Q: What sequence folds into this?
Protein backbone atom coordinates (compact mmCIF):
# COMPACT_ATOMS: atom_id res chain seq x y z
CA UNK A 1 0.00 0.00 0.00
CA UNK A 2 2.83 2.39 0.86
CA UNK A 3 4.41 1.76 -2.56
CA UNK A 4 1.09 2.38 -4.26
CA UNK A 5 0.46 5.65 -2.43
CA UNK A 6 3.92 6.91 -3.41
CA UNK A 7 2.62 7.31 -6.95
CA UNK A 8 -0.09 9.81 -6.06
CA UNK A 9 0.08 13.03 -8.04
CA UNK A 10 -0.60 16.46 -6.62
CA UNK A 11 -4.22 16.10 -7.66
CA UNK A 12 -4.47 12.73 -5.94
CA UNK A 13 -2.88 14.01 -2.72
CA UNK A 14 -5.15 17.06 -2.66
CA UNK A 15 -8.20 14.87 -3.21
CA UNK A 16 -7.12 12.56 -0.37
CA UNK A 17 -6.52 15.51 1.93
CA UNK A 18 -9.91 16.97 1.04
CA UNK A 19 -11.58 13.64 1.79
CA UNK A 20 -9.91 13.40 5.20
CA UNK A 21 -10.89 16.96 6.02
CA UNK A 22 -14.48 16.26 4.97
CA UNK A 23 -14.50 13.12 7.13
CA UNK A 24 -13.28 15.13 10.13
CA UNK A 25 -15.97 17.75 9.58
CA UNK A 26 -18.62 15.02 9.20
CA UNK A 27 -17.64 13.54 12.56
CA UNK A 28 -17.69 16.93 14.27
CA UNK A 29 -21.00 17.96 12.70
CA UNK A 30 -22.49 14.46 12.88
CA UNK A 31 -23.28 14.49 9.13
CA UNK A 32 -23.53 10.91 7.88
CA UNK A 33 -24.06 11.86 4.24
CA UNK A 34 -20.91 13.97 4.27
CA UNK A 35 -19.06 11.07 5.88
CA UNK A 36 -20.14 8.73 3.06
CA UNK A 37 -18.91 11.23 0.49
CA UNK A 38 -15.61 11.68 2.30
CA UNK A 39 -15.04 7.91 2.49
CA UNK A 40 -15.59 7.66 -1.26
CA UNK A 41 -13.26 10.61 -1.92
CA UNK A 42 -10.48 9.02 0.20
CA UNK A 43 -10.97 5.50 -1.22
CA UNK A 44 -10.94 6.58 -4.86
CA UNK A 45 -7.23 7.64 -5.02
CA UNK A 46 -6.19 4.59 -3.01
CA UNK A 47 -8.09 2.21 -5.29
CA UNK A 48 -6.79 3.91 -8.42
CA UNK A 49 -3.22 3.85 -7.06
CA UNK A 50 -3.43 0.12 -6.31
CA UNK A 51 -4.75 -0.77 -9.77
CA UNK A 52 -2.21 1.48 -11.54
CA UNK A 53 0.68 0.01 -9.54
CA UNK A 54 -0.34 -3.52 -10.54
CA UNK A 55 -0.58 -2.44 -14.17
CA UNK A 56 2.96 -1.05 -14.01
CA UNK A 57 4.37 -4.34 -12.74
CA UNK A 58 2.80 -6.35 -15.57
CA UNK A 59 4.39 -4.45 -18.45
CA UNK A 60 7.23 -5.72 -20.66
CA UNK A 61 9.06 -4.38 -23.71
CA UNK A 62 11.69 -5.28 -26.31
CA UNK A 63 13.88 -3.12 -28.58
CA UNK A 64 15.21 -4.02 -32.03
CA UNK A 65 17.73 -2.14 -34.20
CA UNK A 66 17.54 -2.17 -38.00
CA UNK A 67 20.32 -2.26 -39.06
CA UNK A 68 22.71 -2.79 -36.17
CA UNK A 69 25.42 -0.78 -37.98
CA UNK A 70 24.67 2.64 -39.43
CA UNK A 71 27.18 4.85 -41.27
CA UNK A 72 27.62 8.48 -40.34
CA UNK A 73 24.98 10.48 -42.19
CA UNK A 74 22.85 7.39 -42.79
CA UNK A 75 19.60 6.43 -41.15
CA UNK A 76 18.34 3.52 -39.11
CA UNK A 77 15.15 2.40 -37.46
CA UNK A 78 14.55 1.49 -33.83
CA UNK A 79 11.53 -0.69 -33.12
CA UNK A 80 9.80 -0.97 -29.74
CA UNK A 81 7.36 -3.70 -28.79
CA UNK A 82 5.38 -3.21 -25.58
CA UNK A 83 2.93 -5.70 -24.13
CA UNK A 84 1.20 -6.55 -20.86
CA UNK A 85 1.28 -9.86 -19.02
CA UNK A 86 -1.74 -9.10 -16.85
CA UNK A 87 -5.44 -9.49 -17.45
CA UNK A 88 -6.47 -5.92 -16.68
CA UNK A 89 -6.74 -3.45 -19.59
CA UNK A 90 -3.91 -0.94 -19.69
CA UNK A 91 -4.00 2.64 -20.89
CA UNK A 92 -2.54 6.05 -20.30
CA UNK A 93 1.11 5.12 -21.01
CA UNK A 94 3.82 7.69 -21.76
CA UNK A 95 6.90 5.98 -23.24
CA UNK A 96 10.28 7.69 -23.57
CA UNK A 97 13.43 6.05 -24.94
CA UNK A 98 16.87 7.37 -24.11
CA UNK A 99 18.65 8.61 -27.24
CA UNK A 100 22.00 10.49 -27.21
CA UNK A 101 22.13 13.83 -28.98
CA UNK A 102 24.38 12.39 -31.71
CA UNK A 103 21.49 10.20 -32.93
CA UNK A 104 18.69 12.74 -32.97
CA UNK A 105 15.79 13.85 -30.79
CA UNK A 106 14.52 11.80 -27.85
CA UNK A 107 11.27 10.08 -28.91
CA UNK A 108 8.10 10.03 -26.84
CA UNK A 109 4.95 7.99 -27.40
CA UNK A 110 1.51 8.13 -25.79
CA UNK A 111 -0.43 4.85 -25.72
CA UNK A 112 -4.06 5.41 -24.82
CA UNK A 113 -4.89 1.72 -24.69
CA UNK A 114 -2.59 -1.31 -24.65
CA UNK A 115 -4.19 -4.48 -26.10
CA UNK A 116 -3.96 -7.39 -23.69
CA UNK A 117 -2.82 -10.05 -26.19
CA UNK A 118 -1.05 -8.33 -29.07
CA UNK A 119 0.52 -5.29 -27.44
CA UNK A 120 1.69 -2.36 -29.56
CA UNK A 121 4.61 -1.88 -31.96
CA UNK A 122 6.28 1.50 -32.17
CA UNK A 123 9.26 2.78 -34.12
CA UNK A 124 11.33 5.90 -34.57
CA UNK A 125 14.23 6.83 -36.90
CA UNK A 126 17.80 7.63 -35.91
CA UNK A 127 20.14 9.74 -38.04
CA UNK A 128 23.64 9.62 -36.54
CA UNK A 129 26.02 12.50 -37.16
CA UNK A 130 28.96 11.17 -35.14
CA UNK A 131 30.60 7.75 -35.23
CA UNK A 132 30.94 5.63 -32.11
CA UNK A 133 29.22 2.96 -30.06
CA UNK A 134 26.11 4.83 -28.93
CA UNK A 135 23.84 3.50 -26.18
CA UNK A 136 20.08 3.51 -26.75
CA UNK A 137 17.83 3.42 -23.71
CA UNK A 138 16.73 2.73 -21.16
CA UNK A 139 13.08 2.72 -22.19
CA UNK A 140 11.02 4.32 -19.44
CA UNK A 141 7.26 4.35 -19.09
CA UNK A 142 4.92 6.55 -17.09
CA UNK A 143 1.70 4.82 -16.17
CA UNK A 144 -1.16 7.18 -15.29
CA UNK A 145 -4.84 6.70 -14.61
CA UNK A 146 -7.60 8.48 -16.57
CA UNK A 147 -8.33 10.78 -13.61
CA UNK A 148 -4.74 11.98 -13.27
CA UNK A 149 -4.59 10.93 -9.63
CA UNK A 150 -1.55 8.60 -9.85
CA UNK A 151 1.57 8.29 -11.94
CA UNK A 152 4.30 5.61 -11.77
CA UNK A 153 7.67 5.43 -13.52
CA UNK A 154 9.28 2.19 -14.58
CA UNK A 155 12.19 1.01 -16.74
CA UNK A 156 10.89 -1.48 -19.29
CA UNK A 157 13.98 -2.18 -21.42
CA UNK A 158 17.65 -1.67 -20.70
CA UNK A 159 20.28 -0.25 -23.05
CA UNK A 160 21.16 -1.42 -26.55
CA UNK A 161 24.32 -0.50 -28.46
CA UNK A 162 24.07 1.07 -31.91
CA UNK A 163 27.34 1.01 -33.85
CA UNK A 164 27.81 4.10 -35.99
CA UNK A 165 30.63 3.35 -38.43
CA UNK A 166 32.64 5.97 -40.33
CA UNK A 167 31.46 7.00 -43.75
CA UNK A 168 33.14 5.09 -46.58
CA UNK A 169 33.87 6.96 -49.80
CA UNK A 170 34.37 5.04 -53.08
CA UNK A 171 37.95 5.25 -54.37
CA UNK A 172 39.59 4.27 -57.64
CA UNK A 173 43.08 3.13 -58.49
CA UNK A 174 45.93 2.02 -56.24
CA UNK A 175 49.49 3.14 -55.53
CA UNK A 176 52.12 1.54 -57.72
CA UNK A 177 52.76 -1.94 -56.37
CA UNK A 178 50.65 -1.49 -53.24
CA UNK A 179 50.58 -4.68 -51.21
CA UNK A 180 51.74 -7.02 -53.96
CA UNK A 181 54.54 -9.48 -53.69
CA UNK A 182 55.89 -12.06 -56.04
CA UNK A 183 53.22 -14.65 -55.32
CA UNK A 184 49.47 -14.49 -55.59
CA UNK A 185 49.12 -12.98 -52.13
CA UNK A 186 52.62 -11.63 -51.64
CA UNK A 187 53.24 -13.76 -48.59
CA UNK A 188 55.97 -16.14 -49.82
CA UNK A 189 58.77 -16.18 -52.31
CA UNK A 190 60.45 -19.15 -53.93
CA UNK A 191 63.97 -20.08 -52.91
CA UNK A 192 66.94 -21.67 -54.57
CA UNK A 193 68.31 -25.06 -53.59
CA UNK A 194 71.00 -25.34 -50.98
CA UNK A 195 74.45 -24.69 -52.36
CA UNK A 196 73.11 -23.02 -55.49
CA UNK A 197 74.93 -19.72 -55.77
CA UNK A 198 73.15 -18.65 -58.94
CA UNK A 199 70.57 -15.92 -58.59
CA UNK A 200 67.09 -17.07 -59.50
CA UNK A 201 65.21 -14.42 -61.46
CA UNK A 202 61.87 -14.16 -63.16
CA UNK A 203 60.14 -11.51 -65.31
CA UNK A 204 58.94 -8.37 -63.59
CA UNK A 205 55.27 -8.28 -62.64
CA UNK A 206 53.28 -5.17 -61.97
CA UNK A 207 53.55 -4.38 -58.29
CA UNK A 208 56.89 -6.06 -57.62
CA UNK A 209 59.25 -4.28 -55.27
CA UNK A 210 61.64 -2.24 -57.42
CA UNK A 211 64.52 -2.77 -55.05
CA UNK A 212 64.46 -6.46 -56.08
CA UNK A 213 65.11 -5.70 -59.76
CA UNK A 214 68.18 -7.63 -60.99
CA UNK A 215 69.75 -5.12 -63.34
CA UNK A 216 72.43 -7.45 -64.74
CA UNK A 217 69.82 -9.97 -65.90
CA UNK A 218 67.62 -7.13 -67.10
CA UNK A 219 70.42 -5.77 -69.30
CA UNK A 220 71.30 -9.24 -70.62
CA UNK A 221 67.75 -10.24 -71.51
CA UNK A 222 66.50 -6.78 -72.43
CA UNK A 223 63.52 -7.43 -70.13
CA UNK A 224 62.83 -6.33 -66.60
CA UNK A 225 63.82 -9.17 -64.25
CA UNK A 226 63.49 -9.45 -60.45
CA UNK A 227 65.29 -11.63 -57.93
CA UNK A 228 63.53 -14.49 -56.15
CA UNK A 229 65.04 -14.69 -52.68
CA UNK A 230 65.16 -17.34 -50.02
CA UNK A 231 63.71 -15.43 -47.13
CA UNK A 232 59.94 -14.99 -46.80
CA UNK A 233 58.53 -11.57 -47.37
CA UNK A 234 55.47 -10.23 -45.60
CA UNK A 235 53.28 -8.86 -48.34
CA UNK A 236 50.39 -6.51 -47.83
CA UNK A 237 49.81 -2.94 -46.85
CA UNK A 238 49.63 -1.37 -43.41
CA UNK A 239 47.22 1.53 -43.07
CA UNK A 240 48.29 3.73 -40.16
CA UNK A 241 45.76 6.04 -38.48
CA UNK A 242 47.11 8.86 -36.32
CA UNK A 243 44.45 9.44 -33.64
CA UNK A 244 46.38 11.64 -31.21
CA UNK A 245 44.13 14.34 -29.84
CA UNK A 246 47.04 16.80 -29.90
CA UNK A 247 47.56 16.16 -33.62
CA UNK A 248 44.03 17.11 -34.70
CA UNK A 249 41.81 20.16 -34.60
CA UNK A 250 38.12 20.87 -34.96
CA UNK A 251 35.10 19.59 -33.07
CA UNK A 252 32.51 16.90 -33.66
CA UNK A 253 31.90 15.39 -37.08
CA UNK A 254 33.72 18.28 -38.81
CA UNK A 255 37.02 17.65 -37.01
CA UNK A 256 40.22 16.56 -38.73
CA UNK A 257 40.19 13.31 -36.74
CA UNK A 258 36.83 12.29 -38.22
CA UNK A 259 38.15 13.08 -41.69
CA UNK A 260 41.20 10.90 -41.05
CA UNK A 261 39.11 8.00 -39.71
CA UNK A 262 36.74 8.13 -42.69
CA UNK A 263 39.65 8.23 -45.13
CA UNK A 264 41.41 5.32 -43.43
CA UNK A 265 38.21 3.25 -43.56
CA UNK A 266 37.77 4.04 -47.25
CA UNK A 267 41.36 3.05 -48.05
CA UNK A 268 41.15 -0.23 -46.10
CA UNK A 269 37.95 -1.38 -47.76
CA UNK A 270 39.11 -0.21 -51.19
CA UNK A 271 42.35 -2.19 -51.00
CA UNK A 272 40.63 -5.27 -49.58
CA UNK A 273 38.08 -5.33 -52.35
CA UNK A 274 40.94 -5.42 -54.83
CA UNK A 275 42.44 -8.47 -53.12
CA UNK A 276 45.16 -6.81 -51.06
CA UNK A 277 46.16 -7.85 -47.58
CA UNK A 278 45.36 -4.98 -45.23
CA UNK A 279 46.65 -4.36 -41.75
CA UNK A 280 45.12 -1.48 -39.78
CA UNK A 281 47.20 -0.01 -36.95
CA UNK A 282 47.49 3.15 -34.87
CA UNK A 283 50.44 5.47 -34.40
CA UNK A 284 51.08 3.80 -31.05
CA UNK A 285 51.70 0.44 -32.73
CA UNK A 286 48.38 -1.10 -31.69
CA UNK A 287 46.97 -3.40 -34.39
CA UNK A 288 43.24 -2.86 -34.81
CA UNK A 289 42.55 -5.46 -37.50
CA UNK A 290 44.52 -7.60 -39.91
CA UNK A 291 43.03 -9.38 -42.89
CA UNK A 292 44.47 -11.96 -45.23
CA UNK A 293 43.14 -10.72 -48.53
CA UNK A 294 39.77 -10.40 -50.15
CA UNK A 295 37.16 -11.72 -47.75
CA UNK A 296 33.60 -11.53 -46.62
CA UNK A 297 31.67 -8.60 -45.23
CA UNK A 298 32.47 -9.85 -41.72
CA UNK A 299 36.07 -8.68 -42.10
CA UNK A 300 34.92 -5.37 -43.53
CA UNK A 301 32.62 -4.97 -40.56
CA UNK A 302 35.52 -5.74 -38.22
CA UNK A 303 37.50 -2.88 -39.76
CA UNK A 304 34.57 -0.48 -39.51
CA UNK A 305 33.75 -1.56 -35.95
CA UNK A 306 37.32 -1.01 -34.79
CA UNK A 307 37.34 2.48 -36.30
CA UNK A 308 33.89 3.23 -34.88
CA UNK A 309 35.18 2.51 -31.37
CA UNK A 310 38.45 4.43 -31.88
CA UNK A 311 38.79 7.27 -29.40
CA UNK A 312 41.38 10.09 -29.41
CA UNK A 313 44.70 9.17 -27.87
CA UNK A 314 46.26 11.29 -25.12
CA UNK A 315 49.75 10.62 -26.45
CA UNK A 316 51.19 13.95 -27.56
CA UNK A 317 54.22 12.90 -29.63
CA UNK A 318 55.01 10.02 -31.95
CA UNK A 319 57.25 7.51 -30.19
CA UNK A 320 58.18 4.49 -32.30
CA UNK A 321 60.01 1.52 -30.84
CA UNK A 322 59.69 -0.52 -34.04
CA UNK A 323 58.62 -0.22 -37.64
CA UNK A 324 54.97 0.79 -37.59
CA UNK A 325 54.50 -0.87 -40.97
CA UNK A 326 55.81 -4.23 -39.70
CA UNK A 327 57.95 -4.61 -42.81
CA UNK A 328 55.01 -3.98 -45.15
CA UNK A 329 54.22 -1.10 -47.40
CA UNK A 330 52.81 1.74 -45.34
CA UNK A 331 50.01 4.23 -45.97
CA UNK A 332 49.99 6.66 -43.06
CA UNK A 333 47.12 9.07 -42.40
CA UNK A 334 48.82 11.66 -40.21
CA UNK A 335 47.68 14.67 -38.26
CA UNK A 336 50.05 17.47 -37.30
CA UNK A 337 53.59 16.12 -37.65
CA UNK A 338 56.72 17.85 -36.39
CA UNK A 339 60.30 17.23 -37.46
CA UNK A 340 60.71 14.94 -34.45
CA UNK A 341 57.64 12.96 -35.51
CA UNK A 342 59.04 12.50 -39.02
CA UNK A 343 62.33 11.33 -37.55
CA UNK A 344 60.47 8.80 -35.38
CA UNK A 345 58.61 7.45 -38.42
CA UNK A 346 61.86 6.96 -40.33
CA UNK A 347 63.92 5.65 -37.42
CA UNK A 348 62.87 2.02 -37.74
CA UNK A 349 61.49 2.15 -41.28
CA UNK A 350 63.49 -0.15 -43.61
CA UNK A 351 64.87 1.54 -46.70
CA UNK A 352 63.44 0.53 -50.04
CA UNK A 353 59.97 -0.37 -48.78
CA UNK A 354 57.30 1.89 -50.20
CA UNK A 355 55.98 4.49 -47.75
CA UNK A 356 53.08 6.83 -48.44
CA UNK A 357 51.52 9.52 -46.28
CA UNK A 358 48.40 11.67 -46.32
CA UNK A 359 49.35 14.67 -44.21
CA UNK A 360 46.40 16.61 -42.83
CA UNK A 361 46.84 20.37 -42.69
CA UNK A 362 45.07 20.41 -39.33
CA UNK A 363 45.19 24.22 -38.78
CA UNK A 364 42.91 24.54 -41.84
CA UNK A 365 40.10 22.85 -39.88
CA UNK A 366 39.82 25.96 -37.69
CA UNK A 367 40.99 28.59 -40.21
CA UNK A 368 39.24 30.20 -43.18
CA UNK A 369 39.07 28.05 -46.29
CA UNK A 370 41.23 30.54 -48.23
CA UNK A 371 44.14 30.26 -45.80
CA UNK A 372 47.34 28.82 -47.33
CA UNK A 373 48.96 25.61 -46.19
CA UNK A 374 50.52 26.13 -42.78
CA UNK A 375 54.29 26.28 -42.45
CA UNK A 376 54.60 23.24 -40.12
CA UNK A 377 52.65 21.14 -42.62
CA UNK A 378 54.87 22.27 -45.49
CA UNK A 379 58.02 21.50 -43.49
CA UNK A 380 56.77 18.03 -42.54
CA UNK A 381 55.88 17.38 -46.19
CA UNK A 382 59.38 18.33 -47.36
CA UNK A 383 61.00 16.15 -44.68
CA UNK A 384 58.90 13.13 -45.59
CA UNK A 385 59.53 13.53 -49.32
CA UNK A 386 63.21 13.95 -48.62
CA UNK A 387 63.14 10.60 -46.82
CA UNK A 388 61.62 8.86 -49.84
CA UNK A 389 57.95 9.09 -48.89
CA UNK A 390 55.15 9.77 -51.34
CA UNK A 391 53.12 12.55 -49.72
CA UNK A 392 49.93 14.46 -50.41
CA UNK A 393 48.30 17.16 -48.29
CA UNK A 394 44.64 17.01 -47.25
CA UNK A 395 42.46 19.94 -46.20
CA UNK A 396 38.79 20.16 -45.11
CA UNK A 397 37.72 21.06 -48.63
CA UNK A 398 39.73 18.23 -50.22
CA UNK A 399 37.50 15.44 -51.59
CA UNK A 400 38.78 12.07 -50.45
CA UNK A 401 38.77 10.53 -53.96
CA UNK A 402 40.96 13.38 -55.20
CA UNK A 403 43.37 12.99 -52.26
CA UNK A 404 43.65 9.27 -52.98
CA UNK A 405 44.25 9.90 -56.69
CA UNK A 406 46.99 12.41 -55.88
CA UNK A 407 48.60 9.89 -53.54
CA UNK A 408 48.56 7.21 -56.24
CA UNK A 409 50.12 9.62 -58.73
CA UNK A 410 52.81 10.61 -56.23
CA UNK A 411 53.57 6.92 -55.65
CA UNK A 412 53.90 6.28 -59.38
CA UNK A 413 56.22 9.26 -59.79
CA UNK A 414 58.32 8.03 -56.89
CA UNK A 415 58.52 4.55 -58.41
CA UNK A 416 59.52 5.97 -61.79
CA UNK A 417 62.26 8.06 -60.18
CA UNK A 418 63.61 5.01 -58.32
CA UNK A 419 63.51 2.98 -61.53
CA UNK A 420 65.45 5.61 -63.48
CA UNK A 421 67.97 5.91 -60.65
CA UNK A 422 68.49 2.13 -60.62
CA UNK A 423 69.06 2.03 -64.37
CA UNK A 424 71.63 4.80 -64.20
CA UNK A 425 73.46 3.12 -61.35
A:
Amino acid sequence: MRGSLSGLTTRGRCLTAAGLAAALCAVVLNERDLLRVSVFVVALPMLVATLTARTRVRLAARRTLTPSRVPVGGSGDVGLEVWTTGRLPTGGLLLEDGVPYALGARPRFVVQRLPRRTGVRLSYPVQPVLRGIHPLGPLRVKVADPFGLTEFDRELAGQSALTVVPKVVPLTGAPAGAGLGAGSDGSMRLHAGQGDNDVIVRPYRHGDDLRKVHWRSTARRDEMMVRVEERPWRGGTTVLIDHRAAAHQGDGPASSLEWAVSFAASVCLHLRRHGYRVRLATEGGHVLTESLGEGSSVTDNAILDSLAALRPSHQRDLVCTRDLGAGQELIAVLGAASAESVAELNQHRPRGIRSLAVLLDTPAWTAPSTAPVSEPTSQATDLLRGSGWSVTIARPSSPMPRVWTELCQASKQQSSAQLDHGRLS
Q: What stands out?
A: The radius of gyration is 33 Å.
